[in-house]
Amino acid sequence: MPVKIVRTSILPFRGFTAINLMGVLFVHPGVYLSNELMNHERIHTAQQREMLFVFFYMAYVVEWLVRLPMRGNAYRNISFEREAYANQRNLDYLRSRRPYSWRRYMKRTRH
Ligand SMILES: [Zn+2]
């Protein structure tokens, strides 16, 4: 799955390395794009496609808002992020990944 890369200092916001918007990866100029980082972002692209993009962003924001008052890091505990972080080191993950696999991460332990 090819990922288009746009280097800009405007996106993402402070504290984040990269943001994947509609399959386009925005990264700061100096950021090294490791295999792990690219795999993480490709997992997000797979999630976005199966959610027809718009439902991905809606679910992402809703889950983040729900998790904000909970213990742990709300961003890291979003199930889309859990799936991406848990599998980013497995560079073959996307070959065997089943659609909607992020659902299995909704109830995992907190970060
Ligand atoms: Zn992510």
| Backbone structural class | alpha+beta
**How many angstroms separate the termini?**
28 Å
Q: How do the strands of the widest beta sheet line up side by side?
A: 1-3-2
Determine the fraction of residues in helical runs and give it as a percent range.
40-55%
Number of domains: 1
Largest sheet: 3 strands, mixed
Shape: globular
Round the Cα radius of gyration to an integer and report it: 14 Å
Runs with pLDDT <50, length 5+?
none
DSSP E strands, number: 3
The proportion of strand residues reads 5-15%
Helical segment tally? 5
Kindly report the average pLDDT value. 93
**Helices and strands, in N-to-C order?**
EEEHHHHH
Describe this structure in words.
This protein is of the alpha+beta class and 111 residues long. The protein has one domain. Helices cover 42% and strands 11% of the residues. A three-stranded mixed β-sheet has the order 1-3-2, covered by helices on one side. A hairpin with a 2-residue loop joins strand 2 (18-21) and strand 3 (24-27). Helix 1 (35-50) packs across helix 2 (54-67) and helix 1 (35-50) packs antiparallel against helix 4 (79-87). Residues 40, 44, 81, 84 line the site of zinc ion (ZN).
Layout of secondary structure:
Elements: E1 4-7, E2 18-21, E3 24-27, H1 35-50, H2 54-67, H3 74-77, H4 79-87, H5 93-96
Parallel strand pairs: 1-3
Antiparallel strand pairs: 2-3
The structure holds zinc ion (ZN).
Zinc ion binds at residues 40, 44, 81, 84.
